[in-house]
Design a protein that fits this description.
The chain has about 600 residues and is an alpha+beta fold. Helices cover about 40% and strands about 20% of the residues.
Length: about 600
């Protein structure tokens, strides 16, 4: 639920952004705002945005602030824009370290109308949802989230802020070996969030972080302060700080150029390489990953060990802990983590005497060579691994054999080592000549029970807009009577303030403004809310709008004096306010 003050912040921001971006943003921006159902007057309704974007095959979903990168990418891959529904404060108009509806809707949504860019975003999501992460990535993500939320609070102590900054630095220092996810996050930052398009000497803005920030969208145009570089994969070597302005930016030639850079990066990821390199990357990551066999079988878990022959071909893979078996991203019946709670191991490769991969044989063809349910089966792999056991089940999907289950089974390595003993129970053999892809996360995450819970129990992370005082609760009551009294007084003052914002909007939107009501309200505001610069600016706009009907010279002067003597605390925001006032005055003179 947005307050009248939130609506005023949105209106001021969008008006100033549109004026500021008229010459510096890519031309798609203005048309995209309208087509996405975004106006300057009101914070957008997600239902209306959904209806508008449906015509181009996209949709939106509201989320509460930060969501894990993998979830964000999964939405994007399905052509859904995840929008943080929180609204930035008056104090953080120029720049907010946390995602909010200004950034998500007015920043990301406008360029979805460009077909090439929308396809780039979708492809980015497809790649992003499958990158490998490292355990240290979660610590960095949590620290960034905590610091960003802290910076969004007005009552966080200096000590707590320093603690949050130290926590982030510690997490970053411990994460020197960057994962695929961390590298892709850099590409996302320098393109989707902070990208420029054109040439290094003649460019326009398309990045959502720039489009949604009055400060950054102006700062980025200063070539003396911000270096511009042609976008290449070299940007992956450049770290970024989410909480401050960027000292360098990257320029893409076009959406096709964006797609080429993304494709070049994707080609080097485990999800594209597979094989020994991909499995090695998964083992090194220490997080849940999925192996995609050539048959289509997917094995998800913590990859623990890989064996290969002298040529580097993968011949056996082991996982540890709960492991999930899937096909086409759907968990196989009776093959979730509870069925493979201690891990999973299986040979990879061709079988001696078979011209094709075992996955490609029909049931009749298998029976012809002695592989039939209920029969003893002997399989000798080209790698030297051997299997002897009684076949009890064959799982087939899309005309392929993907899993053979054996009882009383023994599996020996090419060196004679026992890889599976009959006393260990049922042996499920993955079918596949090669591991074609290795990607982060489980194939069917909705059915996968995580091995490790990365959430820190007991840690208090306040949502944007929640006062720390509101969290000081003992047995359901605020910790002190003085705090309760202060909150009550603050609530009354806030109620009066919000009513004033709502009253101004009603008068501004009236078909025939009542001059007497306007004068009465402004007199009241001068007495009770003269330090609320945004409210006084709206009063100034209101008075100028009906100046021709009635001379408000004295009131205009009083409001103008308030705005000049009690400007925003941030000097940059004060400069934006003065520009906005001059724009109003020029429009009044011309109108």
């Amino acid at each position: 639920m947005y307050t009248p003050r939130d609506q005023a912040v949105w209106r001021f921001l969008l008006q100033q952004l549109q004026a500021q971006l008229l010459a510096s943003a890519h031309p798609v921006y203005t048309d995209g705002l309208a087509q996405a159902g975004i106006s300057t007057e009101y914070i957008p309704c997600l239902e209306e945005m959904n209806a508008r974007l449906a015509s181009i095959g996209w949709g939106v979903v509201g989320v509460d602030g930060f969501i894990p990168p993998a979830a964000f990418m999964a939405f994007q891959a399905r052509r859904i824009l995840a929008i943080a529904t929180s609204m930035r404060s008056v104090e953080q108009m120029l720049y907010t370290p946390a995602p909010d509806i200004v950034h998500e809707s007015a920043g990301h949504a406008p360029f979805l109308i460009d077909v090439d860019y929308a396809e780039f975003l979708q492809r980015f999501g497809e790649v992003g949802m499958k990158v490998l992460t490292r355990q240290q990535d979660q610590a960095v993500y949590d620290a960034i989230r905590h610091l960003s939320i802290s910076k969004g609070q007005s009552d966080v102590s200096v000590y707590d802020m320093e603690l949050a900054e130290t926590r982030l630095q510690t997490a970053v220092d411990a994460n020197q070996q960057l994962s695929e996810a961390a590298l892709l996050a850099r590409l996302h930052w320098w393109t989707v969030e902070y990208g420029l398009v054109g040439t290094v000497d003649d460019y326009r803005i398309y990045g959502a972080g720039l489009l949604s920030s009055l400060g950054e969208s102006q700062h980025c145009l200063d070539d003396n302060k911000v270096d511009k570089h042609l976008l290449t994969l070299a940007c992956l070597q450049q770290p970024y700080d989410i909480t401050c302005e960027q000292p360098q930016l990257y320029v893409t030639h076009s959406c096709r150029h964006l797609c080429q850079v993304l494709a070049d990066m994707a080609a080097g990821l485990a999800q594209s390489r597979g094989g020994l390199e991909g499995i090695g990357a998964a083992i090194d990551s220490g997080t849940v990953a999925t192996l995609l066999y050539s048959s289509g079988l997917q094995v998800s878990g913590l990859i623990a060990e890989v064996r290969c022959d002298v040529m580097g071909n993968v011949i056996y893979v082991n996982t540890r802990g709960g492991t999930q078996l899937s096909f086409a991203d759907q968990q196989l019946p009776d093959h979730g983590v509870e069925a493979h709670v201690s891990g999973f191991g299986s040979p990879v490769g061709h079988i001696s005497g078979f011209r094709r991969c075992l996955s490609d044989y029909s049931i009749d063809e298998l029976r012809f060579v002695g592989i039939a349910v209920g029969e003893r089966v002997s399989l000798d792999f080209v790698s030297g691994i051997s299997l002897r056991g009684r076949l009890v089940d064959i799982k087939r999907y899309q005309q392929k054999n993907v899993l053979l289950s054996f009882a009383d089974c023994c599996v020996l390595g090419n060196d004679g080592e026992v890889l599976f003993d009959p006393s260990w129970g049922m042996f499920d053999m993955a079918v596949g000549a090669t591991i074609d892809s290795v990607f982060g996360g489980a194939a069917d995450p909705g059915q996968y029970a995580p091995v490790n819970d990365s959430d820190s129990p007991g840690e208090l992370v306040m949502a944007p807009g929640v006062s720390r005082a509101a969290c000081l609760v003992v047995d359901g009551n605020v910790n002190s009577a003085s705090a309760e009294s202060g909150l009550r007084q603050s609530s009354l003052l806030q109620s009066s303030l919000f009513q004033s914002y709502a009253h101004i909007r009603l008068l501004r939107e009236a078909v025939v403004p009542n001059v007497a009501d306007i004068q009465h309200l402004v007199h009241k505001l001068l007495l009770s809310h003269s330090s609320e610069w945004l409210l006084m600016f709206e009063a100034y706009e209101l008075l100028l709008g009906c100046q021709k009907k009635c001379d408000h010279g004295e009131l205009l002067g009083a409001v103008s004096q308030c705005l000049h003597t009690q400007p925003p605390q941030d000097p940059e925001l004060g400069a934006v306010l003065l520009r906005a006032m001059k724009t109003l005055e020029r429009a009044h003179e011309l109108g």
